[in-house]
User: What shape does this take?
Amino acid sequence: MKTSLYSLRYVLGSAVNGLWRNRTMSIGAIITTTIMLITLAAFLAINDTLNQMVSALGRKSNLIAYVRDDARPSDVTRIIRDLQGQSGVAEVVFVTKEDALRIFQERFTDQTDVIDILQANPLPASVELRMENPAILPSLADELRELSDTFETVVVPLDVVERLIAVSNVSRVAGTVMVIALTGVTLFVVVNTIRVAVYARRQEIEIMKLVGATDWFVRGPFIIEGAFIGVFGATMAAGAMVALYAQVGPSITQIISFLPINTNVAYVRSLALFIVLVGLVVGSIGSYFSVRRYLAV
Amino acid sequence: MKTSLYSLRYVLGSAVNGLWRNRTMSIGAIITTTIMLITLAAFLAINDTLNQMVSALGRKSNLIAYVRDDARPSDVTRIIRDLQGQSGVAEVVFVTKEDALRIFQERFTDQTDVIDILQANPLPASVELRMENPAILPSLADELRELSDTFETVVVPLDVVERLIAVSNVSRVAGTVMVIALTGVTLFVVVNTIRVAVYARRQEIEIMKLVGATDWFVRGPFIIEGAFIGVFGATMAAGAMVALYAQVGPSITQIISFLPINTNVAYVRSLALFIVLVGLVVGSIGSYFSVRRYLAV
Amino acid sequence: MIVLQGVSKTYEGFTALSNVSVSIARGEFAFLIGTNGAGKTTLLRVLLREEPFDQGVVLVNGVDISTIRGASLTKFRRKIGMVFQDTRLLPNATVSENVGLPLKVRGRSNRDVSMAVNEVLKRVALLEKASRFPKQLSGGEQRKVALARAIISRPEILLCDEPTDSINPLHAREIIELLLDINADGVTTLVATHDSDIVNDLRRRVIRMDAGGVLEDMAVGVFNTS
Amino acid sequence: MIVLQGVSKTYEGFTALSNVSVSIARGEFAFLIGTNGAGKTTLLRVLLREEPFDQGVVLVNGVDISTIRGASLTKFRRKIGMVFQDTRLLPNATVSENVGLPLKVRGRSNRDVSMAVNEVLKRVALLEKASRFPKQLSGGEQRKVALARAIISRPEILLCDEPTDSINPLHAREIIELLLDINADGVTTLVATHDSDIVNDLRRRVIRMDAGGVLEDMAVGVFNTS
Ligand SMILES: Nc1ncnc2c1ncn2[C@@H]1O[C@H](COP(=O)(O)OP(=O)(O)OP(=O)(O)O)[C@@H](O)[C@H]1O
Ligand SMILES: Nc1ncnc2c1ncn2[C@@H]1O[C@H](COP(=O)(O)OP(=O)(O)OP(=O)(O)O)[C@@H](O)[C@H]1O
Ligand SMILES: [Mg+2]
Ligand SMILES: [Mg+2]
Assistant: This one.
C-alpha cells in the first residue's frame, strides 16, 4: 500500500521531469497533437456545417399537390395535419385559390387582363411542402397521388430533387469518409510522434530494466507523459476551436442567415470535450505501445 | 573540382546510410509525410469537387426575361448572342410563345380549357439563362431591364440566388481557408518530424563539426535525407491519390452524372506532381533549418 | 554461488565466449582480467541476464538463469549491482536520481532513498554534485556515480566492469577499498579490470580470460604486464 | 606553439579552469595529470574551441583562438586530432567510416581514405573489425577506434584525453609508443591521463592540475600515487 502510494508520486514526478527534460521532443509532440486535433475539430465542424447547408438547400425543393376544386376541406385539413407530423417534412403551406391567383398576377403583372377575362379563378389551390429530407419526396408524392379524391395532380420538380439528393449523399459520404480518415491520420501522427519520442529514449528504458525496474515502473511515467501530451495538445486545440467558433460562428450565421447552422455552445463544448478525451486516450495508449517493444530487455 | 565530385558521392552515400541506419526515424517520417500529403491531396480534390458541385447547383438557377410581343426579333437574336458570349452565363435558352403555352398546358393539364377560351396565346416568349456564376445575376438582370423595348419584365428568383451565392461563397472561403490551413499543418507536421529526427542525431552533427567538417559537409546528407523522405512520402501519397481517383472517380461521376466533376488524368497528374514537389521542397528545407541550430559548435 | 558450465556466446557469428566454466562462491571476491575483447564484459552481461547465451548453463544460487522470465527476472536483477563499462547513466536524470534509481525501483520511500543517496554519494565524494546531470560531470565523476548506483541497494552480487577506469590512482585505491568493504559484508564481487597495480596489490583470486575462454584461474593472482 | 595566459572557464557558475597559464612548444610531448575534476578535459576542449572560455588568452601558432569564426574554425580544427574521453564515435557509422571521417571531411578520395583507414586500423590491431558498428566493439576497442580517428589526418596537434582508459596494459604501452612515434614527426602532443605507470616510465614533461589550476609543471615529471 505504502509502496504503491510512493510509486504513484514517483510516477507523476518522473513524468513531469521527463516532459521537461526532453522538452524539445515534448513540445514537438504537443504542437503536433494540437494542430492535428485542431484540424480534426475544424473538419468535424466544417463537415457538419456543409451537411447542414446541403440539407437546407434541399429544403427549398418542394412538392406541390394541386387540390381539386371539389375536394372536401376537412380532407385537406386532415392531410395537411398528417403531413406536418411526418418526419422529413420541414414545412407545409396551404395556398388557396385566391393566393394562387395573386401570385400569378404578381408574376405576370402585364397580363392581368388574361385572367380578368376569365369568368372564374381557373387556378387551383395547392398544398406545398418544404422538405427536411428530400430523399423521401418520390414516395411521398406517390402516396399523395393515391388520394385522387383530394388532389388533381402532384408535381415534383424531380430533376432538382434528384440532384440535391445525389449531392447531399455524396457530400455526406465524402464527409464521413474524410472524418474517419482524418481521425485515423490524427491518431496515427500523434502516436507516431510519441513513438519517435520514446524511441529516442529507448536506452533509458533498458537501463531502468537492468537496474531492476518492473515493466509498470518504466511504463508509468511514459504513459502519464503521453497522456499529458495528448491532453495538453487537445486542450489547446479545443481552446483554439472554441475561440474560433466564437469569432467565426456569428459571421457565418450572418452570411447564411437562412440556414440553421449549429454554432451553439453545447455543441462546441461537447466537441471540445470529445477532442480532449481523444487526446488523453491516444496519448496514453500511444505511449503504452511505444514503450512496450523496448521493455523486452 | 575533384573534391566536390567526391563530396557529392559522399553526400549521396551518406544520405542513404543515414536513412537506413536510422530507419525507425526515417520510416516514421516517411509515413507521416505520406499520410499528411494524402490528407492534403484528398482535401484539395474534395474541396475542388464540392466547389464544382455548388457551382453546378447554382447553374440551375436562372433568370427569365419575358419578351414583349412587339419586340424586334433581330434585337432578341442579337441579345441572345451577346448573352451567350458573356462570361458567367452557362446557357441561354429562347422559349417561344408556343413553347410557353405548351409548358403551361403540360403543367395544368386539367385547365387547358382556361387557355382554350382565350382568343390568343396570352403567354409571352422568354429568354431563360442558366448561370455559371450566379453572383453576376443581379447586375445582369438590371442590364436587361434597361432594354425595355425588348423585355417586358425580368424575373430573378432572388431568394434562391442569394442563398446559392451565399452558400457557394461560404463554402469557397471555408474551402480555401481549410486548404491553406491544412497546407500549413502538413508543412508543420512534416518539418516537425524531420526536426525531431535531426534532434535525435544532434551529437553526430557536433562530432562531425569537431572533426573539421564544414557546415555544408554536415548539412548535405541531412538535406538529401530530408528531400528523400519528402519525395518518397509524397510519391506514395501521389500514388495512393491516383489509385483512389481511378477507383472512386468514376463512381462519383456516375452518382452525380449531371455535374462536370474533374476526374480527368491531367488534373490528377498535376496534383500528384504538385504533391511530390511539395514533399521535395519541404523535406529538404525542413532538414536545412533543423540542422542549422546544431551546427553552431 | 555463481556457476558457469561450458558457456558459449556468439554475437552474430562472432564468438565472444567459448566454453567458459568457472564458479565463484558466495561472498567471494574475484578479478576478471584479460586483453581487450577477451570477453569480460560479455561474461558480466550474461550474468545480469542482459544478453542471452548460446550454450552451457549458468546457475546463480542454484537457479538456471536462462529460465528466468518476467517478474522473476526483475527480482533476479535486484540481487545484482552492476557498474557498466560505459556507465549507462540516465542522461536526463540528476546524479541523485541516477544513484537513487535502484531504490526507487524497489518502491522505497523518498526519505529512505534520499538518505541512502546522501550516504553513498558521501562515500564517493560527490555529494556536492548531487543535483548535476551526468554530462555536467568529468569522466571520472561519472564512473563514481555509476559505482554509487551499483552499491546503493546492497545487492547480493556486485559486478564491476572497469570500476577504476578514468579514475585517479588515489581515488581508485579508495574505490577498491570500498569494494572490499562491501565484499566483507558477504557480497559476491566480480571486478573486470585492466588496472594491474590494484590487482597485484590485492593478491586476490584472478580469472584471466583470452579470446572468449578462461586461460588461468589463480587463487592468489598476479597481473603480468609484460 | 600553444600558449594559455590566465585562462579561466566556468560552467554555469562552477569554476573548471582558474587562471591557467601554460605554454607548450611546437613538437613537444606533455602529460596532463590531476585528480578527477581537476580540469584536464576542460582544458583540452578549450584548445579544440569546443568550449568557450571566460578570461585570458589562448594562442595557437600565434593566433588568438577566441577570434576564430566560421570557415577558419573548420580549418583550425583540421590542425588538431582529438581523442575524446567519451570516445564520441558516430553510433551509426562503422569503424572504417568513423576512422575515415576526418579525411572525408577534407574531401579526400575514397581510395585515399580507405588506404589510410586500413593503415591506421592495422596500427591499432582492429582491421578485422573495420565493418563493425561502435556498439559491437568492446570498451577498449572503441577507444582504439577513437585514437585511430584522431591520428589518421596527421594533425599538427594531437590532444588525447585518457587514450589508454579501458585498454589492456600491454596494448596501452603500444599505444603510447605510437603517440611517441607521431610526436617524433613533430606533432605537438598533449596527453591527459591517470595511468601512473606510463607517466612514470616515460619521464617526459608533466603538467599537474588541481581544482582548475596548474599545480606543477615538471620537465621530467613523475606521477605520485600516494
Ligand atoms: N554486439 C556485438 N556484436 C559483435 N561483436 C561484439 C559485440 N559486443 C562485443 N563483441 C565482441 O566480442 C568480444 C568480447 O567483447 P567484450 O566487450 O566482452 O570484451 P572485454 O573483455 O570486455 O574487452 P574490453 O577490455 O576492451 O572491455 C570483442 O572482440 C568484441 O569485439
Ligand atoms: N558541463 C558542465 N557543467 C558543470 N560543471 C562541469 C561541466 N563539465 C565539467 N564540469 C566540472 O568541471 C570540473 C572539471 O571537469 P573536467 O572534465 O575538466 O575534469 P577532468 O580533469 O577531465 O576530470 P576526469 O579526470 O575525471 O576526467 C569537474 O569538477 C566537473 O564536475
Ligand atoms: Mg569490457
Ligand atoms: Mg576528463
